[in-house]
């Protein structure tokens, strides 16, 4: 089934971002720390790479630290800097600014630019926490927290409490995903409207993924002692009955996805670079 997740206005917005690049000093691409590769927008990258790009791994509080380290080691040369944030926490502003200012690019830029504000374009796939992030630095509820997939259409300048001005952009997806796994992961992370994807497909994928990479997560969460490890459909049936939902696989799937989204299975990353302790 071909899913329409790319409303026409997104193409227009992407063009507008290209036109605004001359007005900004650098860009912040916000991604979900649980899937930092998958939630990067390849189409936007081409556009914003004309200026330094900092990748911001948000929702770091939910991600598997080992996978985050592996991702950073693999990708650090591709960006001017890779930063980590938990936008829900009040400590974000100080910690984020410290990370940014420690970067040599930023130090040089602010030396030459002491009086003026630094301007940053902020981009991100829907639901990575971009509005929460901006609101924290702005110190008010200014970015639309209802910035759900495809809702906001425009670019907005937002002044923060610091020497930073943000150009906020709508949550953007791209027209074609290379493979179905990308759509599935973004769906599980809440970046594609829930009614566009079948929640039982997402749940079955998530069950297989967890069974393979975090084999105790589901059994622990739902207190299931004899859990079918190699059969996701049987596993979904056990979860459904354990939740007292009889044959309502749809509700059980939704519950599983929501539990994952809010971190109930522990620190889990969907972009998984292997279990070994070596960074390769
Ligand atoms: P967006 O603009 O990128 O679309 O995302 P938004 O800020 O609306 O955030 C999406 C959801 O992610 C929100 O939860 C928000 O609270 C949560 N969130 C944002 N940053 C972080 C983070 O660093 N860590 C964690 N754990 N969560 C984060 P929600 O359930 O949609 O809303 P609410 O229940 O918080 O009101």
Automatic annotation (TrEMBL):
Location in or out of the cell: Cytoplasm
Example of a GO cellular component annotation carried by this entry: cytoplasm
SUPFAM superfamilies for the chain: P-loop containing nucleoside triphosphate hydrolases (SSF52540)
Amino acids binding GTP: 58-61, 127-132, 171
GO molecular function, one term: GTPase activity
InterPro entries to which the protein is assigned, alphabetical: GTP-bd (IPR006073), GTP-bd_ortho_bundle_sf (IPR023179), GTP-bd_ribosome_bgen (IPR019991), GTPase_MTG1 (IPR016478), P-loop_NTPase (IPR027417)
Keywords, sorted A to Z: Cytoplasm, GTP-binding, Nucleotide-binding
GO biological process terms held by the UniProt record: translation
Entry-linked Pfam families: MMR_HSR1
Claim: GTP-binding is one of the keywords in the record: yes
Signal peptide span: none
All residue ranges annotated as the G domain in the record: 120-180
Function, in words: Required for a late step of 50S ribosomal subunit assembly. Has GTPase activity.
Homology family: Belongs to the TRAFAC class YlqF/YawG GTPase family. MTG1 subfamily.
PANTHER family listed in its UniProt record: MITOCHONDRIAL RIBOSOME-ASSOCIATED GTPASE 1 (PTHR45782:SF4)
Protein name: Ribosome biogenesis GTPase A
Biological source species: Oenococcus oeni (strain ATCC BAA-331 / PSU-1)
């Amino acid at each position: 089934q071909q899913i329409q997740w790319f409303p026409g206005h997104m193409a227009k917005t992407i063009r507008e971002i290209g036109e605004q690049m001359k007005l900004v000093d650098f860009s912040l691409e916000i991604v979900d720390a649980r899937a930092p590769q998958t939630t990067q927008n390849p189409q936007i990258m081409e556009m914003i790479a004309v200026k330094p790009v900092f990748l911001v791994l948000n929702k770091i509080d939910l991600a598997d630290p080992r996978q985050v380290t592996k991702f950073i080691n693999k990708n650090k040369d591709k960006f001017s800097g890779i930063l980590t944030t938990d936008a829900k926490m009040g400590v974000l502003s100080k910690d984020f600014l410290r990370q940014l200012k420690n970067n040599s690019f930023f130090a040089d830029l602010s030396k030459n630019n002491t009086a003026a504000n630094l301007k940053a374009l902020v981009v991100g796939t829907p639901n990575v926490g971009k509005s929460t992030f901006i609101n924290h630095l702005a110190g008010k509820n200014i970015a639309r927290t209802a910035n759900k997939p495809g809702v906001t259409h425009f670019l907005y300048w937002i002044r923060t409490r610091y020497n930073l001005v943000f150009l906020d952009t709508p949550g953007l997806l791209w027209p074609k995903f290379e493979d179905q796994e990308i759509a599935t992961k973004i769906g599980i992370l809440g970046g594609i409207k829930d009614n566009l994807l079948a929640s039982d497909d997402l749940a079955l994928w998530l069950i297989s993924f967890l069974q393979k990479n975090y084999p105790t997560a589901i059994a622990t969460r739902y207190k299931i002692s004899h859990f079918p490890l190699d059969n996701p459909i049987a596993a979904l049936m056990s979860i459904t009955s354990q939740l007292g939902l009889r044959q309502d696989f749809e509700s059980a799937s939704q519950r599983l996805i929501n539990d994952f989204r809010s971190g109930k299975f522990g620190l889990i990353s969907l972009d998984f670079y292997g279990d070994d302790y070596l960074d390769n």
